[in-house]
Amino acid sequence: MSRTTRIERYRNIGIMAHIDAGKTTLTERILFFTGRIHTVGEVHDGATEMDWMEQEKKRGITITSAATTASWKPMRGPFAGHPHRINILDTPGHVDFTIEVERSLRVLDGAVAVFDASQGVEPQSETVWHQANRHGVPRIAFLNKMDKVGADFAMCVHSIRQRLDAHPVPVQLPIGAGPEFTGLIDLPRMRAFLFDGERGEPAEGQEIPAHLRAEAEALRLRLIEACAEVDGTVLQKYVEERLADITAEELERALRTGTLQRQLVPVLCGAAFKNKGVRMLLDGIINYLPAPSDLPAARGETPGTREPVTRAASDEEPLCALVFKLMHDKAVGSIVFLRVYSGTLRTGMAVLNTRQERRERVGRLMFMHANKREEVDEVHAGDICAALNLRGVRTGDTLCAPEAPVVLESLRFPEPVVQLAIEARSRAEQQKMEDGLTRLAAEDPSLRVEVDPETGQQLLSGMGELHLEIVVDRLRTEYGVEASVGQPRVAYRETPRQKVRQEYRHVRQTGGPGQFAHVVLEVAPAPRGSGLVFVDETHGGVIPKEFIPAIE
Ligand code: GDP
Asked: What percent of the chain has pLDDT over 90?
């Protein structure tokens, strides 16, 4: 069986946002419009399709990076009329789950950054934005909640430019804001699309309302200028002052080039909750974000010799895939989420897990849709899928063809910042707790489980209090273990790096508005001589000496 969708028609995307910007609502509406779910549940009543785990339902936050497959045929643009496959990787907005964001950023090809149109850039959006920069992820921006009182399109565009140091390029102009938000002007086409109740925007555009004509013309000129910087055809017509000859298709192609090169960020807007602007956003995802084949080949090395290896996104190359998430499901057991970079993976095939130097036989393979699981015999380069019953696999492992071994560049995990002692209530539960913790640690490499050699206490270290709280919660709901937690008996012996992190986090936290505390610190070797340099990877730059306590 060969692939049903050509790789150029894949879009593997993440939706990233500050908590409450509307990521869950938007994801759900996208799934609604892509035809996979037919009822739209309210977000915080626990009916949302993307929220899988108990905790998410209870807390109303999205923790997992569940991958969902959908399909969309764009209405307009260079790919109009062709069905595309969109794999959506859910990325959480809560600070303690930055690690989850990190792992989905590693395997996605492009992202939609969602902002609350009345708030502009918020601290968490800044953090995720910088993480995405680090991973070189092309992005489009969606200014959500345009229907809210106080929504301000121009303010948001300005704050993206100022606070994220990005080059936002509006491709739409909203018609009205707040309760008067009634439509969108498509700037490449210079047509107005007035919303049809809550069914979204119609296929046919109309004349731009007279009072918005001048503003739309001015924004279109800015759009043309941005496109001229990345596209020869647009540049030529621009310098020859033939602006009216520049077609919508030319602008769309230039926007795609600019987005892929990460020179610009197309800005779209809407109100997910009211279904407004969602279809145009779906068109934008297809038109501007990359297919796996648009990106550089996956990088890795040969195990043992450590020679660099690249694998192009093609079915003709030997198989390589990265495990980016493990989940446990009551019905089917362990689910391994895989991103296939090259080759074809079939059920029954023997693959090599290079980290563990072990061969595994692939059991069942499936695509996870919003409302069903689709079992398949094979998956191909570019696919994101789930494999059942692969034993002994950990997050970050590479699976490859045994005759062409490779270790893909894996995920990077910052060191834990919070530690707790955990104890089962009875001896009988002790073993169950240890088994549960072992499995949870395999799923989540940012969770560290260890026994203090001096006190014998079981210690848990993680990315934040909520992170550890959820672990304790999962022990109860999934493993039936009631555990009590407390501070470790011996004072937490901090490594120099941990000390710096604590001090520096404190400074960032209290340093004024916009400062965000969750920094990832790496110790880099000093350029010359002895000593250590501490780098703030989230904000960039070396951390000044005064934040670094004396290192014994
Ligand atoms: P998340 O935390 O980013 O996943 O955000 P949610 O999707 O949970 O949305 C947060 C809140 O904003 C919920 O109460 C939503 O109903 C509301 N919301 C989402 N989209 C819109 C929108 O387009 N307009 C308005 N007014 N509210 C919205």
From this structure: 49
pTM: 0.79
What gap in Å lies between CA 382 and CA 10, rounded to an integer? 7
Establish whether residue 20 lines the binding site of ligand 1, counting it when its CB lies within 6 angstroms of any ligand atom. yes
- For 335, list phi and psi in degrees, rounded to 5: -115, 125
Buried b / exposed e across 251-265, counting CB within 10 Å, b at 16+? bbbbbbbbbbeeebb
* Tokens at 465, concatenated: 């209090």
CA 50 – CA 38 distance, rounded (Å): 14
**417: amino acid identity, one letter:** V
Reduced to 3 states (helix: H, G, I; strand: E, B; else coil), residue 24 is helix
Q: Is-contact 465 349, C-beta < 8 A? A: no
The answer to whether 318 and 396 have CB atoms below 8 angstroms apart is no
Q: Could you tell me the end-to-end alpha-carbon distance of the chain, in angstroms, rounded to an integer? A: 62
Q: How far apart are alpha carbons 368 and 370 in whole angstroms? A: 7
User: What are the residues facing 288 on neighbouring strands?
Assistant: none
E-strand spans in 389-531? 398-400, 407-408, 418-424, 448-451, 458-462, 483-486, 521-525
Expressed in angstroms and rounded, the spacing between residue 359 Cα and the centre of ligand 1 is 45
Candidate of 16, 18, 20 to mutate for ligand 1, largest count of ligand atoms within 8 Å of Cβ? 20
1 — pLDDT class (breaks 50, 70, 90): low
Pocket of ligand 1 contains residue 273 by CB under 6 Å: yes
For the record, the structure tokens of 380 come out as 């191909």
Q: Tell me the residue length of the chain.
A: 552
User: In this predicted structure, what is the pLDDT of residue 543?
Assistant: 64
**Alpha carbon distance 491, 45 (integer Å):** 41
Query: The tokens 């009543």 sit on which residue?
Result: 45
Segment 301-331, tens digit of pLDDT: 998 888 999 999 999 999 999 998 887 776 7
Annotated binding site for GTP: 17-24, 90-94, 144-147
Mean pLDDT across the stretch 60-87? 79
What ipTM was assigned to the predicted interfaces of this complex?
Answer: 0.99
Q: Which of 141, 148, 140, 163 has its CA nearest to residue 118?
A: 148
Our answer on whether the CB atom of 19 is closer than 6 Å to any ligand 1 atom is: yes
For a pocket test of ligand 1, which of 25, 49, 148, 181 has the largest count of ligand atoms closer than 8 A to its C-beta? 25
- Greater confidence (49 vs 490) lies with 490
| Encoded amino acid at 296, one letter | P
**C-alpha span between 13 and 89 (Å, rounded):** 6
Strands 10-17 and 84-90: parallel
